[in-house]
Structure formats: structure tokens, C-alpha cells
């Protein structure tokens, strides 16, 4: 009997798309916060592959399927979002509501920032406009990872470079990490956004600059 030459049916590959929830994002950030002090997990351009593998393993251990590339893409995206929110907070006329974790500004202030970008840089316009109506609850956690906090001693981090420095000695390779200002528009990534805050600006918000 001749051998059956009928080709085998194609193997169905599971989708690599991941729906990111605030819980998963926080777990990634908390893990990276712990890993950042391990010099063996730092490469010339930021965290190395091993760091992302470890982070993905933590997610899997909590029942969340994710791979190292997805973790890396998510970190790049969050870091880019952080940089934009940080920039907005530093601009004249902007404040920060600690309760809602949202940047605050009058309409005319927003127009002064956004209108010039509408035609000159539509992508940046969309990224900045997003934070007009949305909160960024990861701000404090990301600031600790990239080093935008005051610290002294051997484990101080530089405020802008996101690098571990030992006193005044050479900075770690994280100093050259790409901050991903425009983020990473991963086609295999979906983010489940938290509910938008509706609380009006409260008296304990930072004063406008």
C-alpha cells in the first residue's frame, strides 16, 4: 500500500495577543523595581533579556500568560507614557491631582500645548492629548525605577538617566536606556484601561506653576 502523502493539517498557533490590566502592569513594574538593582540584569541599553524573562516568569507564576518580548514592549510603552506625563507636569500652568493621579490644567493651557502639535507632530499630539482625560496611576512606581526620586548613598539613582550610580562613580548602563518617548505601538498588545476618574480637582492638588 503506498504511503499516505496527504499533508498534515496546519498547526494552530495560539494568539500572542495579551490584554494588559492595571494589575498586570503593576506586577511588571514592581518586579522591575526589584530587578533594577541587580547589575547582572542590566545591559548597555537598559534591562537585559534575562530581566524580561524573569519578569515574564513572575507574571506566569501569577496566572498571567506573557513572554519576555511582551514585557519589554509594555515597559517601553509605560516608560514613554511616564516621560510625557512628567513633561506635562513640569510645564507652566499644569498641576497634579494626587488622588486621581492626573495632570490638571485650564483649557487655554492645554490648547497652547496641543494646537501646535496637531499638524506638526500628530503622533505626539495624540500621546499628549490622551492625558488630558486619563489618569496615570503608575507615576510614582515608574519614577522609582527610572530614578526620578531624591536619594543619597551608594544606591542613589540619577534623576534623569534612570541609572544606578554608586556615589560619584561611573553610571550603570541604564544611563543609556532609550526612554521610548513615543512608546511602543505593539500590534499584539491591548491595554484594558482603568475607569476614568470623575473626581473634580481637590484642594490638595499641587499648585499650578
Q: How helix-rich are the residues, as a percent range?
A: 25-40%
How far apart are the termini?
Answer: 86 Å
**Structural domain tally:** 1
* Count of beta strands: 6
- Biggest sheet strand line-up: 1-6
Mean pLDDT: 74
Radius of gyration: 21 Å
**So what's the overall shape?**
globular
Main structural class:
mainly alpha
Helix tally equals: 6
Low-confidence stretches: 10-15, 150-176, 178-188, 195-209
Percent of sequence in beta strands: 5-15%
* Topology order in helix (H) and strand (E) letters: EHEEHHEEHHHE
Largest sheet: 2 strands, parallel
Overview of the molecule:
The structure is a single chain. 38% of the residues lie in helices and 8% in strands. By secondary structure, it is mainly alpha-helical. The chain has one domain (18-191). The strands form three sheets. Strands 1-6 form a two-stranded parallel sheet. It has a two-stranded antiparallel ribbon with strand order 2-3. Strands 4-5 form a two-stranded antiparallel ribbon. Helix 3 packs across helix 6 (139-146) and helix 4 (107-120) runs antiparallel to helix 5. The longest helix is centred in the middle third of the chain and has 23 residues, at 68-90. Mean pLDDT is 74; it is low at 10-15, 150-176, 178-188 and 195-209.
